[in-house]
Amino acid sequence: MQRREFLRTGLTGFSGLSLAGLYNLRAQAAAASAEKTAVILVWLRGGASHLDTFDPKPDAPSEFRGPYAPIDTNVPGIRISELLPRLANIADQYSLLRSVAHTGGGHPAGSLQVLAGDTARQDKVKPVYPDWMTIANYLRRDSSRTIPNYVAVNAVDRYDSFTIAGPTYLGPAYEPFKVTGDPSRPNFQVPNIGLASSQQARLQSRLDLKKAIDRTNRAIDASGVMDAVDQFETQALNLLTSPDARLAFDLSQEPDTVRDRYGRNQWGQQCLMARRLVEAGVEIIATEFDGPLCGRVANWDDHAVNHNVFEALKFRAPVFDQAVSALIEDIHQRGLNKRVLVIVTGEFGRTPRISHVASSGGGVASAAKGVVQPGRDHWPRANSMLFAGGGIAGGQIIGATDARGEDPIDRRVGPGDFLATIYQHLGIDFRRIAIQNFAGRPNPILNSGAPIPELVSRG
Hints:
Number of strands: 20
CATH class of the largest domain: Alpha Beta
CATH topology of the largest domain: Alkaline Phosphatase, subunit A
Largest sheet: 8 strands, mixed
Structural class: alpha/beta
Strand order of the largest sheet: 8-5-9-1-10-15-4-16
């Protein structure tokens, strides 16, 4: 058995990960320094209706406005949907960007535009450019870490058969450490983190045997490769045995009052884990809101054939409102609001004009098959995003859409501006950095866009 295969067998038997290979690949790229800020992305797969959440239009004609009235927030002049009372009470702690627009009308194209800055309008089976999360992971790696720097708590990676995010030419070494399953379940555990003492002993015995085999190779190795590989193995072992890594993912360490505040459900506990991870030093966290908490089709894609859009929003809004408001409040209360930027968005908004189409099947938030119900379709021409923390001022409304919510009429921004804002927060020089693509040519990490001034840290 070759040495590499022996190592893979020894470590994978416990971890399920090619961790040594991961650290090896990370160390091959040039390092880039940056202030240790962090980002938590809350991704609404399918695209939420901007009119029924953060950009209500109560004076629009009946064929546009939904049934939910806007309510006042704790910031005079800012109103959001009545479905979000908890967020209304903390509007001074976040800012709303209401004028995002792009040209990606399908879920894959819209996601690739927002997450990777790909300007193509057509859907693609897989991305051509790496998403901002893996770029940040690549540029901010630190081989001495015992906890991965990019963690996906319910990963942002696929939409049906399409891949909507990924490392592409950066390689799999920069993919996230993925946490799957429902963290609200009593028996939930994150695999591959913090081996029990008996497992650590078995793993150490395997490593001791491997080291004995390595002595002969090391005697004839004049290049230093063997010593370098040993460093990668040490890092992999640290992740498997580190008590800090184990505790960072362990939600049972939180008081019941805190877990209850976030909500004893998948989305709430995903957000709580994200907060624990940034406190433990993780710098890039993505968490996707989808699954049963969305309704019958398990996402925010509220076509009338999928859901009654208004019943779907009413069904999921209490969980969304509680989880996101708890995360924002916690970030501020724990003194993380300068370092950690929280972003809530999906790939696009929904059509302002309400459609009426027969349901394709009954279930949660959907009438029986054949019953005509209201829906909203894809709408890349307007979307709202929420930003909190990151040292930015709260209580802001940035940009505006027209009276029907169809198009921006003030401060239109595109995906490039969104990505530039994230890179600015992470201390990444997006104007100068280029990374070699598959052809060996330098590819800029961003081709256009500028940070949104109101969403840049005040220092």
